Amino acid sequence: MRRFIFLTYLCGCWLAFSPTQVRAEGLAESKTRFYYKDSSGKTASAWIIRRYWRVPIVHPFAHIDPRIDPKLRRAATIAEERANACSKARCWHYVKEALIAAGAIDSYPQTAYASQAGEELVRNYSFKRLAIRDPYKAPLGAVLVYGNTIRGHVEIRTKDGFVSDYRSKNRCRYPLIAVYGKFSS
User: Fold this and answer.
1) Domains in the chain and their CATH numbers?
2) Which residue, 56, 99, 115, 171, could crosslink 147 as a Cys pair with Cβ 3.0–4.6 Å?
């Protein structure tokens, strides 16, 4: 009888302190998540960050190129005023309207696809392709065209980022096709 009670006691202790009990409560150790109980008693978790950059990633401000038409800088300001917080998938539409409102172009462009915007700007509105391959080095007011065979994106360079139908501090993730600008006469 004593042996049975002793074995029962050992099994109970083992179950009380076993790792399965800790995992059942959701507080198990993990290499990717930190588990805790919030103020209401529910188990919650957060990602464990293993590395960080001591210096924040900061992109340079756009420079003002005196050769670029000042109407393009005005178009950047107009586009920034009209931009949304997030994309509505109408980038080329918003850029067209900003260029017209600023007087940089005199008629509404006819192309429907963003990846074709640069060709039309050069052909019909006397824009020039600039020899710039880094979007962060584009001058203020330049029109940047991104894309591939499937999709495209158009945006205007602002002082501290880019704008189309939304504003962003970072460049588009699509490959850059070209940077376009219009020189003042």
Assistant:
1) 2-47 (no CATH), 70-181 (3.90.1720.10)
2) 115
